[in-house]
Amino acid sequence: MLDRLQLETFGAVIEQGRFEDAARARRVSHGAVSQRIRARDEGLSTVSLFREIPVVPTLPITTALARGRRD
Fold first, then answer.
1. Number of other residues whose CB lies within 10 A of the CB of residue 49
2. For 30-44, b where at least 16 C-beta lie within 10 A, e where not — what string?
């Protein structure tokens, strides 16, 4: 099950490219962003982002995003 806050935070990280910038955009702490992404990954039993600057979605996530954009 996807949590709305986790999904919105994930979207902010993808859009902003950095955890710090996503935290600023969402008006939460960097730690809150990190915890939400970690909880989302654990819930999906996968790693969704490579923690580089900018962040890079993993292949399964990139594929899911591309499918979502087509639909």
1. 18
2. eebbbebbeebbeee
Would you say 33 and 13 are in contact if contact means Cβ atoms under 8 Å apart? yes
pLDDT digits (tens, 9 = 90+) for 4-63: 999 899 999 999 999 999 999 999 999 999 999 999 999 989 999 999 989 999 988 888
Give residue 1's pLDDT: 60
Tokens 């955890």 sit on residue: 19
The pTM of this model reads 0.83
CATH of 4-70, one of 3.40.50.2000, 3.30.210.10, 1.10.10.10, 3.40.630.10: 1.10.10.10
